[in-house]
Structure formats: structure tokens, C-alpha cells
Design a protein that fits this description.
Strand order of the largest sheet: 1-2-3-4-5-19-16-15-12
Distance between the termini: 68 Å
Bound molecules: ligand MIG
Shape: globular
Helix content: 10-25%
Structural class: alpha+beta
Number of strands: 52
Length: about 800
């Protein structure tokens, strides 16, 4: 270690001033306490008076900052960041008052304030003030460049851009409105985006009740902190938003590849009251030929609301129901809440075995805590114990044997009735018995925000043990940073209102930027009664969102897609069908998500940074992968004409396959001139565009992802720059893809002087796909019909001048090949 105890006041102050435009107050603060910088091979220790700040580089683009106000750093443990990632190091180059890596520099000024810059010297993150001690907690302050935008914090309500807003980190069971905070999840992570698209991320790894104030209280100062626990945060450098999303996924772990059926349409209801009602729902979907992959069982399938039981009268034969549904290609997902009925001496095994194993959370007095929830008096598994998670996972044995495909973990904030706080007492006692942690007790105040995540983890890991060759599907309501490793999520109890439909977009986009790629909002709205138009519009938009689940509350009108009569049903069906046709594209995006953490649903600026200065509403438009853009009206009930900003580079209309019709919008103050698509809303139409330079794989219509499509794989080619498409296939359900049983292939297209070349790349993996042929449709074709040549042989071409397409049918191309189209 290089030790350079700098008695700094003059030396470092002047060097800091020379190197960094630190906040103006730097020059006038009271004499700074002596600052000692000690270099480490992977970073530095900075001592300011009592305080110790350790800044280490985990990788060239990721820093970890730990601060001990009293000079000690506290326990080095995390529920979010795996130990191997936390302890990764990279060697750094010492500077006079800091260090650098190839991607960033970290320096401190005379007052100990940290500045992180990217390789070209742009400030990514800069302390505005020294750390502040607040009771048992702390607050940090970062400068907010005037024109930077802030995203993240998961599905918190409010606008897409968090600037000017303040939020509380405290998982809460809250039927919500647009300004309700906090709600179900706490993901203390934000992405900061400069007007030119440069981005960085900051993750505060602290589970206590905390807050983020993005310049609401004090303009241009971002304050965040927590009421207890360690000061332990990560700064992620990235040259783009995508880099930051990917690096955050490396830090906390990407969502694993989901089962294919998760991407299908899902029908839920609080509750379907009997097995026969479930059979009837499935039968009607099949009769009306609306594709469907899953039906959910909400709490009423249980006996007296007791988790892991079934009502013997209404659901007498779960295995039989699952079998019948399987015959219809429908999977069953069952809710399994964490509150275990406190039912001693009644032969209720979850309670009896839980007591025997000492698996329940204790009250401050040391006795098992009992709180009232759906089953009445209930006890709460202590999910911070590895042993308890193991026991919990085992409770799924019988349902797993019955063949129930997925499980739904609700109420895991945890929600407890009767208290105004809606949760258990903060002095309840949890036990942390967990590799990587000191074995100790912790109050509920510390554990609350990770309780739901550890619940979903116990479910996920339990299912993997019970069915080692099947990808688990878990849907959780509460979670914390990193929870995407175990479960998909939904935004909780929304309402059947136009405004709630509008909110789905910023909520799901921010979840996606916060690691949760697989998320959905209850389609048609949980509470209340939607108009037929609202439900129809909701289905249209949600058909392009990651989890497409129709769900509604007890006592509200039914929402199955046929309920509003044949005209509405026909529109809804068309959108469900559109999603199923798009399944090969969606599944290739899911593969990308598993590898990189990039979500299916992306803000337009994530892929096209010029959207940042378009002056368009980026809170309602979204991308599906990189290539498809969905553009509902800024207010989805509005019938007024609106403009859709199309990022530079050319777009096609997804529905007609023709180049998008655009008009020039003149520039105005701060907004550049651009081409826009002008849309006058019609209920049966949702504007969807495809980027010029895309190859979108599609498939023949099926009624369930379990059904093998009949016919060829369609490749819709939209010529343009960087033209690329991705194919991914596997068995959709097992882990065999990890052992090579998958197919991944890149296809590119290039505009040539005489036409087009479509190049098939080498295929990875050894999975045999369902298709044997390819139906290639090239869009935007003008002029005469081309000759098509594949590997020296002419192939037949059908040109449709009216549609502007040429179509070619060729056999599947499993190895490198080029198809040339020449006029
Ligand atoms: O107290 O299980 O958010 O989706 O239908 C309500 C019944 C409990 C809340 C969930 C909702 C679910 C409902 N649950």
C-alpha cells in the first residue's frame, strides 16, 4: 500500500481547486478537518476528522463507497450484491487526491467531498456537501446538474423523470394513486442521464427506511439517506444508459431466463371460486380462440385462507384441475401468501413444522409474533434465515407435485391488518443466519424492506430444488434491489381508470431501468369498474408490456376479454394475437435480458438518445426491445390528434409494413425540428412502429405457447442502417439451454446498389427449432421485383407492389448463408 498521509489544508485544497470545479461553498467552509488520503491497490481510504470513507474500484466502471462516521465501516454484507461481486477488485492508478481506472477518476477535495468523473472528465457524481449524521442515520448530498434527468427507484408513482420529486423507501401495502408514496417495493437505485445521453448510476445498498429527494426540497441538490444501517453505495459509470443498466445488472444479478409461457396472456381474478369456474374460463378462451397461457388462483382456492391448503369443496382435486388445464395448454399459477395461520393442534403442517423448526419471527418480548392477516391470527416466516427459507421452499412440495406451474407471493411487505402502519412492529426480532453475514438478530426496521425479496427467494430456490429441471416462475409484490434474480413483479393494486393506464408506462419503464425486466400492471385495473373502452385500450397497450396479466378485485365486474361484447372482444383478441405472433421476437429479447439485464420494455432514449431532446412526452411511448416502438396517446382517453416523435433513422408502421407517414415538425425553443407521425386516436388502433434496419421474427398464430406453431418462421425485414435481427429458441421450460440446448442466430441485412443482401450468421447451440422453413417478407420494396439467389441457386420471389413487399420462402438456414435480392 502506498501511504500518503497528506496534511492537506493548503496542498490538497489548492490541488482540488485546480482540478475540480467543486461547489462554490468549498472556499468558505469552516477550516476543514485534516484530511488523510491513504491509497489502496484498489482505491483509497479518506479520513476526515473521525470519519472514514473507503472508495474502491470493483471494476473499471464501478466504484463502491463505504463511509463510517465514527471511523469504522461496519459489517460488509449485502442482500443485493453477491459477495464475489462486492469483493471484486481492479487495480487503480493513484492521483494526487484520488485515483483513476480506465473508465473513471475519483477524487476528494479539501473537505473530503467525493467527485467521480468519466474518462473524458465529465462529472458523473459529486458530493454537494459532506455526509450528514441524522439521529441514527445519515444523509448524503449530491449536486444535480441543471439539465440532467433521473430515473429508477422501481415502480414508484409519479413522472418517468424523478427530478423534482421525493420518495420514501419503505415497502407498503398501499392501494395507490398517482402521488402515493411509498408503495410496495424499495429499490434505492437511480440512473442519472445528461442531455447528450451520458449516464451514470448510484445504488445505495441500505435496507432501512430511507429517502431520495431529487431536488424537491432544495433545487439542484439530490439528498438521500436512511434512518439506520451502513453508508454503503455504488457509483456506476457508463457512457450510455444501456451501459449503466447492464452494469447494475452485473452488480445485483440479471433476471434469469423465464419460462416461455410467462410471455403469454395470463388471466387472473380475485378470485375464481371453484375448479369448475376455472375450467369454464379456460373453455371460453378456447372456444373464442383468444390465446391464453395461464390462469391464476387467488386466495379463495384455499381452505379458510390458509396458505398451502385447498378448499376441499370447491377445489377437491388440484392435480386433476392442473391435468385438465394442461390438456387445454393452460397453466395454473397459485397464490401462496407468507402469513401462516396460527393454528396450533389442528394438523396444519405449515404451522406445526414451522413451530418445530423455530421458523417464525419473534416479537420484542421473544415470543413468536402473531399478527392478523387473511387467515386471522398468523405467524411470519423469518426469511433471513437460510434454514427457514429452506423449510419454506419445502412447503411447495405438494403443489409442485400437482403440477402447479407458478407461484404468486403477495402481501410480503409484509402486510398486516389492523395496525395503521399496515405492517408488523418495528421492534420485532429477525434472525440473520446467512452465509456472508454475521449471525445476529436484527429488528424489523432493518429487515422490512428485504422481507418480500427473501420471501420470493425462498420460493424460487425451493422450486428449483423440487423441480431442478424447470425454470421457476414466481411473481412477487414486495421486493428490494436484486429481487429480480428470484421473481417477476407487478405494480400492485392499481385502479380501473385512464390515469392508471397511463401510469403503467412510467412505472414499468422505471422498474425495467431498476433491474426488474419482468413486470406488469393489472390489466384493466384492479379496483373499480372500467368502461369497455378503457379495458380495450388497456389490453392493446399491455399486449406490448412484459407481463400481460388481466386481474381484478373481488366485488368488481369481471374482466375476461369477452365481457364487453363481441366488438370489444374482437379488438382485444386481435392484440392478444399480435403478441403471440411476435413471440419469437419477444423470446429473443428475453434471452438478451437474461444475458445483459436489458429489459423488454425500454424508454425510447435508452436506445435512441436523440429522443432526449425531442421535446416529446417520453412517459407514454416505449420500446419493446430495441426495434419496436409503441406510442399510445399521451393521455390514453384523449381523442385529440397527437404527434409521435420518431428518432432519427427511419421507421415503418408495424401494422401496414409500410414506411411510416410523417410530417415535419418545426423546431421551437429548446426542441429541435424533427419528423413526427401524426395520429388521430381510434379505439381499434394503437400506433406501433418498427425501426428501419430490423429483422423481426414472427410465428404462425397459436392459442398457447405450449402449442407448436404450424408452418414457417416469418422474418419481417425492414431495410435500413445497422439492419439486424436475433433468433433465440429452446424448449421454453427447462434448464437444458444452459447445457447447449438452445439456438441463437444473428441475421443481418445490407442495402446493396442493386437490392438487398440478407446474411444468416453461424448458429450457436444445438437446439432443433420447431420451424423448417422461413417466410421472408421484405418491406418497403420499391421498383421491379428482384431476382433472389441463395447460395448460387435462384429462389422464387413474390412481389406485391401495393404492399411494397417481396416475399421469399426458403428452408431454415442453420449455417452461414447469404440471400441476395437484386433488381
Ligand atoms: O388484501 O389476494 O395486490 O392482487 O388479488 C388483498 C387478494 C390481497 C392484494 C393483491 C391482489 C390480490 C389480493 N391481495
Amino acid at each position: 500500500m502506498i501511504r500518503r498521509a497528506l496534511l492537506v489544508s493548503t496542498l490538497l485544497a489548492s490541488s482540488a481547486l485546480a482540478l475540480s470545479p467543486s461547489p462554490a461553498s468549498a472556499a468558505v467552509v469552516a477550516p476543514a478537518p485534516a484530511l488523510h488520503v491513504t491509497m489502496r491497490p484498489d482505491g483509497m481510504d479518506v479520513r476526515t476528522g473521525q470519519q472514514l470513507m473507503r472508495v474502491t474500484a470493483l471494476a473499471a466502471g464501478a466504484l463502491r463507497v463505504r463511509i463510517g462516521l465514527d471511523g469504522t465501516l461496519g459489517e460488509d454484507a449485502s442482500w443485493a450484491v453477491p459477495e464475489a461481486v462486492r469483493h471484486a477488485t481492479t487495480s487503480v492508478k493513484p492521483l494526487l487526491n484520488g485515483f483513476s481506472t480506465p473508465d473513471l477518476t475519483a477524487t476528494v477535495d479539501a473537505a473530503g467531498r467525493l467527485t467521480v468523473r468519466d474518462a473524458s472528465g465529465h462529472i458523473l457524481s459529486q458530493d454537494a456537501e459532506p455526509v450528514e449524521k441524522r439521529h441514527n442515520g445519515f444523509a448524503l448530498a449530491k449536486a444535480m446538474p441543471q439539465n440532467d434527468r433521473y430515473f429508477g427507484l422501481g415502480d414508484k408513482t409519479g413522472p418517468l423523470d424523478r427530478r423534482g420529486m421525493a420518495y420514501t423507501m419503505w415497502n407498503t401495502d398501499a392501494g395507490f394513486q398517482e402521488t402515493t408514496d411509498p408503495i410496495y417495493k424499495s429499490i434505492p437505485y437511480y440512473i442519472q442521464v445528461a442531455p447528450d445521453g451520458r449516464a451514470s448510476g448510484l445504488f445505495l445498498d441500505n435496507t432501512w427506511r430511507g429517502f431520495f429527494d431529487f431536488g424537491k426540497t432544495e433545487r439542484d441538490t439530490l439528498r438521500f439517506g436512511a434512518e439506520g444501517g451502513p453508508i454503503d453505495y455504488y457509483v456506476i459509470a457508463g457512457s450510455t444508459v444501456k451501459d449503466v443498466v447492464e452494469r447494475y445488472a452485473k452488480l445485483t444479478g440479471p433476471s434469469p431466463l423465464p419460462p416461455l409461457w410467462m410471455l403469454g396472456f395470463q388471466q387472473s381474478r380475485y378470485s375464481y371460486m371453484s375448479a369448475d369456474e376455472v375450467r369454464g374460463i379456460a373453455a371460453r378462451y378456447r372456444k373464442d380462440q383468444i390465446p391464453l397461457d395461464a390462469i391464476y388462483l387467488d386466495i379463495d382456492y384455499q381452505d379458510r385462507n390458509r396458505p398451502f391448503t385447498t378448499n376441499p369443496k370447491t377445489f377437491p382435486d388440484m392435480a386433476g384441475l392442473v391435468r385438465d388445464m394442461k390438456a387445454e395448454d393452460v397453466r395454473i399459477v397459485a397464490i401462496t401468501d407468507l402469513h401462516i395461520a396460527a393454528a396450533p393442534g389442528q394438523g396444519y403442517a405449515p404451522f406445526d413444522t414451522g413451530m418445530a423448526g423455530d421458523h417464525f419471527v419473534k416479537a420484542a418480548n421473544g415470543r413468536v409474533y402473531v399478527g392478523k392477516v387473511w387467515p386471522g391470527p398468523a405467524v411470519f416466516p423469518d426469511f433471513t434465515r437460510a434454514k427457514t427459507r429452506d423449510w419454506w421452499g419445502g412447503l411447495y412440495k405438494s403443489f409442485a407435485d400437482d403440477g402447479i406451474a407458478g407461484f404468486w407471493n403477495d402481501m410480503n411487505e409484509p402486510a398486516v391488518f389492523t395496525y395503521p402502519s399496515k405492517t408488523m412492529p418495528l421492534d420485532n426480532i429477525h434472525r440473520i443466519e446467512e452465509p456472508g453475514f454475521q449471525t445476529r438478530t436484527a429488528t424489523h426496521a432493518e429487515i422490512h424492506n428485504i422481507f418480500g425479496m427473501e420471501n420470493s427467494r425462498a420460493t424460487y430456490e425451493g422450486l428449483l430444488k423440487l423441480r431442478p429441471d424447470e425454470r421457476p416462475f414466481v411473481l412477487t409484490r414486495a421486493s428490494y434491489a436484486g429481487g429480480q434474480r428470484y421473481a417477476a413483479t407487478w405494480t400492485g393494486d392499481n385502479m380501473a381508470s385512464w390515469n392508471h393506464l397511463r401510469m403503467t408506462v412510467p412505472m414499468l419503464l422505471n422498474l425495467g431501468m431498476s433491474g426488474f425486466a419482468w413486470s406488469g400492471a393489472d390489466v384493466t385495473g384492479f379496483g373499480g369498474a372500467p368502461s369497455a373502452d378503457l379495458s380495450t385500450r388497456w389490453v392493446e397497450i399491455a399486449a406490448f408490456q412484459p407481463i400481460f396479466r388481466d386481474h381484478s378485485a373481488v366485488g368488481t365486474p369481471h374482466r375476461e376479454l369477452w365481457v364487453d361484447g363481441p366488438q370489444h372482444e374482437a379488438i382485444r383478441k386481435r392484440f392478444v394475437e399480435a403478441r403471440y405472433r411476435l413471440m419469437p421476437y419477444l423470446y429473443a429479447v428475453a434471452d438478451e435480458t437474461a444475458r445483459t439485464g436489458l429489459p423488454m420494455m425500454r424508454p425510447v432514449f435508452m436506445t435512441y438518445p436523440d429522443a432526449l431532446d425531442s421535446g416529446c412526452d417520453d412517459g407514454t411511448t416505449f420500446l419493446v426491445g430495441d426495434k419496436i416502438m409503441v406510442a399510445p396517446a399521451p393521455f390514453p382517453e384523449s381523442t385529440g390528434t397527437y404527434d409521435i416523435c420518431l428518432p432519427k433513422g427511419g421507421w415503418y408502421d408495424y401494422w401496414t409494413g409500410k414506411p411510416a407517414q410523417t410530417v415535419a415538425r418545426p423546431g421551437s425553443q429548446g426542441v429541435r425540428a424533427m419528423q413526427v407521425a401524426r395520429e388521430t386516436p381510434r379505439l381499434d388502433h394503437l400506433p406501433v412502429f418498427v425501426r428501419a434496419g430490423s429483422i423481426i421474427p414472427r410465428q404462425p398464430l397459436v392459442q398457447s405457447t405450449m402449442e407448436t406453431p404450424k408452418g414457417a418462421l416469418e422474418l419481417a425485414v425492414y431495410p435500413g442502417d445497422d439492419c439486424v435481427g436475433l433468433l433465440y429458441a429452446d424448449d421454453g421450460r427447462s434448464l437444458d439451454y444452459r447445457r447447449g440446448a438452445y439456438l441463437r442466430q444473428t441475421i443481418r441485412c445490407t442495402v446493396t446498389p442493386t437490392g438487398l443482401a440478407i446474411e444468416f450468421g453461424a448458429r450457436e447451440g444445438h437446439y432443433q427449432p420447431w420451424w423448417q422453413g422461413l417466410d421472408i417478407v421484405v418491406h418497403g420494396w420499391t421498383g421491379s421485383a428482384p431476382k433472389a439467389v441463395l447460395g448460387g441457386n435462384a429462389v422464387a420471389v413474390v412481389a406485391d407492389a401495393g404492399a411494397g413487399t417481396v416475399s421469399i420462402h426458403i428452408p431454415d438456414q442453420a449455417s452461414v448463408a447469404t440471400l441476395r435480392l437484386d433488381r
